[in-house]
Input
Amino acid sequence: MVSRKKKRTTKTAGKKSAKKAKKKQTSKVKLAKVKKTKAPPKRKYVYFFGGGKAEGKGKMNELLGGKGAGLAEMTNAGVPVPPGFTITTEACSLFYKNNLQLPKAIDQEMFQYLAKMERITGAKFGDLKDPLLLSVRSGSKFSMPGMMDTVLNLGLNEETLKGLVGKTKDERFAYDSYRRLIQMFGSVVMGVDKEAFEKIITRRKERERIKLDAALSVEDLRNIIAKFKELIKRKTGEYFPGDPREQLRMARDAVFKSWNNPRAISYRRMHRIPGDLGTAVNIQAMVFGNMGESSATGVGFTRNPSTGAKEFYGEYLTNAQGEDVVSGVRTPKHISELEKEMPKVYRRLKRIAEKLEKHYRDLQDYEFTIQQDKLYMLQTRTGKRTAHAAVRIAVEMAKERLLPRKEAITRVEPEQLNQLLHRMIDPSASVEVVAKGLAASPGAASGMVVSRPMMPFATLKTARPSFWSGRRPIPTISRESTSLRESSPPGGE
Amino acid sequence: MTSHAAVVARGMGKSCVAGCEAIKVFEHQKHFIVKDHVVREGDIVTLNGSTGEVMLGEVPTIEPELTGEFGEFIGWADEFAKLKVRANADMGKDAIVARRFGAEGIGLCRTEHMFFAEERLPIVQKMILAEDEQKRAEALHKLLPLQKKDFIELFEEMRGHPVTIRTIDPPLHEFLPNLEDLMVEIAILRAKKESFEEIEAKGALFNRVKELHEFNPMLGQRGCRVGIMYPEITEMQVRAIFEAACAVAKTGKPVMPEIMIPLVGHVNEFRHQKEIVNRVAEEVMQERKIQVRYLVGTMIEIPRGALTAGEIALEADFFSFGTNDLTQMVFGFSRDDCGKFLNYYLDKGILAKDPYTSIDLPGVGQLMRMAVEKARAVKPNLKIGICGEHAGDPASIYFCHQLGLDYISCSPFRVPIARLAAAQAAVGKSEYTSM
Output
């Protein structure tokens, strides 16, 4: 077609204009082509990952958010990741443009992908026998830890709960999962004060004279669940939704909305993150680390983030969920214990950690869950590290030929070196910190307290104990802030 | 942290914790209270300036490890860096730290800092207060060997790396007592009915201080203006530099002195001082019968100096941007007074960044670029550097790399940071490009 047209123009017009026409033609053709590839008839707002393949890539962190891109990248790299999908940050923009509602088409797209998840997992969302449970998490281009919302165990209601009991043969686990769902959903999605839920639990524990949540019986949990539901109705005038699809829609919209909660806004302002980026939403099949002694959950680093030593580094808790590790109620075990408890899983985890580090060519900080002897990776990201570790990791990675030197030298922030250039507190010393001010100039030093500069040291008594303490009435006059200037001990300098 | 205490402490490499609200200080009782502890004058405390933590008693500390992995890492950085990194060092002991941190020379030696030492200040004051040239010459003669000794230490420590020495820069009254203090002292002497001579002497001092008083010292008689008004000060300093250089050269060690004239705004100011430098240098070298290679250059820190950089470059062997003063004069706000509004500006976003921490690219940066272009147009190989706080700031270092400067000179403790930042600029770490 094009060539015929070209011929015709050459015939009818002069040489010069013919050239022009040709140019016009080809550029038009190119434009059309670009349009075809860049803007397909239906824009894609949902990206799937699972079953060893993902539609997204690690580089798509603007569209999929850091977490979504990481999950896609891990899936493609053959790392076991619970299946799921990511609703893009573009959908988030549309959500805001569309009066805090997701366009119908995207909602439908989401349920198509949910069906795909059901095929892969073999479980069904809202099924009475084998219910699929979901997590809904935020994830933007830049990490904003803890600033936006998460809802877990979506898909449970009075009916599916029975299915979960039957499937897991663990009534307490099932009720506790349901309890957690209502608590999270009630506070995050429906806006009921978190404390109100905690109060109900505390009251029950006091009545039963127990200390730990873990000691709550099925009966206790039933009672708490009923109270939670009453609380939600009383505070919001609405019932906790029993329809799993309704739960999913509401949780998804709540995560989109959480992009603009005051915490997130002030965090972005502090870290100079643009407000128009939006967050993606990751919807993923739940895995449980609290399904008995063959289940666990933990976190790890591919190298020691405080010394930089190349060692398998991490900790975990058996029969626990992620929040138990963070809350500090139970003391996590060192990762080396896992080798004794679940040797196979341990070896697998170690291999995966090595793979992740090779793949990303940097220290990785990852989260994992073991559900009844099966290992799942839930997240990986570049690990924060001390200055000391940053230098050691950069040098060793270059020596391992994981990085060229040219890149290794960019892996330490110049400002970070400041921590390495001055005398520091002996790490083996036991210290008691009595106050914390602004770190105004680095380095550690001991010195004598003086009340004015240039005080002759000879006039100070040095034989006294270095300090003494005692309870004294604190006078009412006090300065709002004060600065401590370093002084040298006699004979120093 | 840009409070003066923090800046000074960092410059000196001393640890510092500031704004510690948990500590209640009771100045009159000479103690402070923290938690349940009463800490009195003379008690020992330990500060960790890297974390802001305060501990009671003496906590053991350890030396930083500069060899091993750190040494290897920073060595790799040097393979890529185009900018050389020097240190600002006024005394031998600064130079030792500078070398330990890998400085390739001294980019700024502030000779006046040598004047503030306790045993020297009275001589400096005598020099300033001298009624005639004879008396001034006597005082200067006493200062000469002291300065010479300092320079020998610097040259020896630097082992042939360039040592840039700036001639006297601050206004003279900075060396003299405070006017209000003198007034009080005179009143006390009178009340005590002390001897007439003593009161008279203080009175003379008072008058001279009053004479030297300026309304705008930052724009007053300072920099090369002091050296032009009192050429004998420049002469003494140049003599001390070259006597030191010749002495070190005679022992067979290499020396590379670079004499730097401060605050030049007009090429004639530079010509005037350069003539003195060359004349005295020749004199000394002939006396000592040894030739030493040296350079005479100038600070570019006055807007007019930057604007006429082409003219000045024809005369000068090197330039060094003094971005502290340049920032002060380009913005038109004095560093000593801007504390009253600068924080407000930063809070309200009127200024995005403190221009004393990071070079203001659209303003000060533009002027620097213009100066470099004008100077290199007439002298393509002119050596150009920067000295001052900005030279230790990674974002500013990135800019200096882009400008094609030859070296940066920062405080000794920031040298490794500057080396790494220079390397990262050279490999194109893009973090700062969005500025």
In short: Chain A has 16 helices and 18 strands. The radius of gyration of chain A is 30 Å. Chain A has a mean pLDDT of 83.
